[in-house]
Amino acid sequence: MGIRKHPNSPFWHFKFTVNGTTVTGSTKTKNKTLARQIYAAKRTDFLRGKNDIPKIEKTSLPELATLFLKWSQANKKSYARDRILVNHLIKFFGKRNCDDISSFDVERYKTYRIKKVSPSTVNREIACLSRMYTLGKSWKKVYTNPVKSVQKFKEPKKSFRWWSEDEIEKVLNACQTDYMKAIVVVGINTGMRIDEILNLQWNDIDFQEKYITIQESKNGEYRKVRMNAMAIDAINSMRKRGKYVFSHRNGKRIKRINRGFSNLVKRAKIAHSTPHVMRHTFASHLTMLGVDPHTIMELGGWKSLDMVLRYSHLAPEHKQHAVDGLANRYQNRISLADRKQDN
After folding, report:
1. In terms of CATH, what superfamily is 165-310?
2. Three-class SS state of 22
3. FRET pair for 289, CA 20 to 30 Å: which of 63, 92, 268, 319?
């Protein structure tokens, strides 16, 4: 049972038996790997028919992609990125039917893409494909998810960039606008993500209790952020022109600062930095102050303690202080025990 070469044909033929019924036919291909996939699909289709499994109309990958992007636009903040990921997938797989794409095909895609982009990028792309299939199953558009058994590439741990006190001073001195300086001060003192800062509204701030309410974080959750005196002063320095703290003269929200931030870093004459460096700086300096990881995790809204433990190597003095404290605690009792033995 399986596939075999027919003596009077250049194509591979398939044969299988289910409950006493033998099914044979030509795969109409000379490619052995493709023939195996066609054999598996034919057998699956036969089993579905015998077991009254509802038949799903064939859906092409571009059709599923269109449905997925409509869903993404309505439900995700990363819609723009999803469009890019989907374009790469369509470019490789073309107009093939979704159920004709196997895990072997996905492995071929990985091999093709890894020659052009990083492992993390390939992982994001196949994760997107997997999400498309998962949703497709729930929408009754596909039978199975071929990505489910595919292993992702191992991704090297990324080093992170943070600002020293000297770099912070250079950056603040290089700020040419009040709003950019305020953004930097808020970023390094609260650990807020840049999107959270730019989406900040006056109604979200409780100056009396010293906290900011983030209605919807990156993880889609509500959380509160503590403010210190520097963050409060920075926010209060902004003129109220509308509901957003950081806004243009017409009151509309400042949507992005990428170019301005890049120019700021160049003027400060420090190494390349993105706005996310402010969040790393927040966690790094708290670590060096000896703040415990759980507290840092809560203050910055990290979902995993592992994300915070990346900064632990920045506090060697704090670790030494901890074990020195333990010695001081035991010292009197141990010394007393030594005297008793001497007597």
Report:
1. Intergrase catalytic core (1.10.443.10)
2. strand
3. 268
Give the pLDDT score at 158: 67
Number of helices (H) and strands (E), helices first, in the chain? 14, 6
Strand partners, 18: 21
How far is it, in rounded angstroms, from Cα 307 to Cα 181? 27
Cα gap 191→302, rounded to integer Å: 10
What's the token pair of residue 198?
A: 């730019």
Burial of 332 (0-12, 13-18, 19+ CB in 10 A): exposed
pLDDT tens-digit series, residues 132-161: 999 998 998 988 899 988 999 987 766 678
C-alpha closest to that of 170 among 293, 267, 250, 248: 267
- CATH number for 61-138 (one of 1.10.150, 1.10.3470, 1.10.260, 3.30.310): it is 1.10.150
Q: How far is 254 from 246, CA to CA, in rounded Å?
A: 6
What one-letter code names the amino acid at 168? Answer: I
pTM of this prediction? 0.61
Per-residue model confidence as pLDDT tens digits over 287-321: 888 888 999 999 998 888 888 888 877 766 666 77
Structure tokens at 279: 């969040």
Q: What share of the chain is helix, strand, coil (3-state, %, to 5)?
A: 55, 10, 35
What CA–CA distance (Å, rounded) separates 37 from 60?
17
